[in-house]
Amino acid sequence: MDINIPKSNKGFLEFVYGFYKGMKTHEITLAYEGEINHQIMKAFTALAQGKMDKESEGTQVQKRVYHVMVECLQNISKHAFHTDVQPDSELNRGILLVIKTENEYKITTGNVIESGHSEELKKTLTQINTLDKTDLDKLYKTQLKEGELSKRGGAGLGFIDIKRKTGQNLEFHFFKVDNRYSFFLLTSIIPRN
Amino acid sequence: MNILEIFPTDDSPEIKFNSDSGIFILKGKSLPEDVSSFYDPVINWLGEYAKNPAGKTQVNVMLTYFNTASSKLLLDILMVFEQMHEDGKEVVINWFYPDYDEDMKDAGLEYAEMVDIPFVHSELKENE
Questions:
Q1: CB–CB contact B72 A155 (8 Å)
Q2: What ipTM was assigned to the predicted interfaces of this complex?
Q3: CA B40 to CA A134: how far, in whole Å?
């Protein structure tokens, strides 16, 4: 039995128009909800890259937006890679929002995680947010040298490196889905300088 | 003569390691779905090479992007060269970075601090 996400009561047409207006209000240029896997990650990072190129965005900014998207989407697809999960499970899915304002890009990702995992995540992200550049570089190097590749193939470095490259704190929030699961939202900010 | 040649893809780099000339090229992007299955054979090949290397080993690193999972395996590769250097073999890492990419330049400087191998840092002009 899969996760039961509470549904909204809004009428369909109201929802679509509200969603369209919401995207304008929040300056969202891309919104996706669906399966998150390696192919999808490559498709969206290529899409974003092409768009930024066409708009003559600074090359360093393009690189950083690309990197944040790769790391966040790979985090979700690695996290979702459980052998006992059904192919159409909520755990293989997530959301991706790309926001472009006058001064920055924001990449927001969201996915369902086990509530137990949220405590550990909260701790890690809170700690990273307290560190300045020097301490972050130290932590990165320590984790790089001493960390091991996890079972899922991650190096535990993604969040640290996002803050290192963007210089911005990671914004995160957890919504309770039910007794076992939470919805984890993460926003990374990339200044356009 | 033993050549390790892996063609680049949209998520993995070109590898061209020539055990006779000692010229090693690592070029392109690195964000494969499974970093271990890509890099473990490379590291194994290097381990064998290190037993009987060329007179001088020049490692030309020309990456335009690598994800954090790759950064770990890149360090593992550098550690094989570090061991060779500590064993008295001649090795140099030529770290190239695109001229606009401060982050890639910094990554090279960071690796140079972490491993005891001679590093040369050079800009790669566009279209090179």
A1: yes
A2: 0.94
A3: 32
In sequence order, the β-bridge partners of residue A34 are A94
Which of A67, A150, A72 lies closest to A111 in space, CA to CA?
A: A72
Could you say which of B11, B69, B101 has the minimum Cβ distance to residue A154? B69
pTM of the predicted model, to two decimals? 0.93
**Token pair 């990339």: residue:** A190
What does each of the 193 residues of chain A score in pLDDT, given as a tens digit?
A: 577 877 877 799 999 999 999 999 999 999 999 999 999 999 999 999 999 999 999 999 999 999 999 999 999 998 876 546 677 788 889 999 999 999 999 999 999 999 988 998 999 999 999 999 999 999 999 999 887 666 555 657 999 999 999 999 999 999 999 999 999 999 999 999 8
Q: What are A72's strand-pairing partners?
A: none
CB B31 within 8 A of CB A74: yes
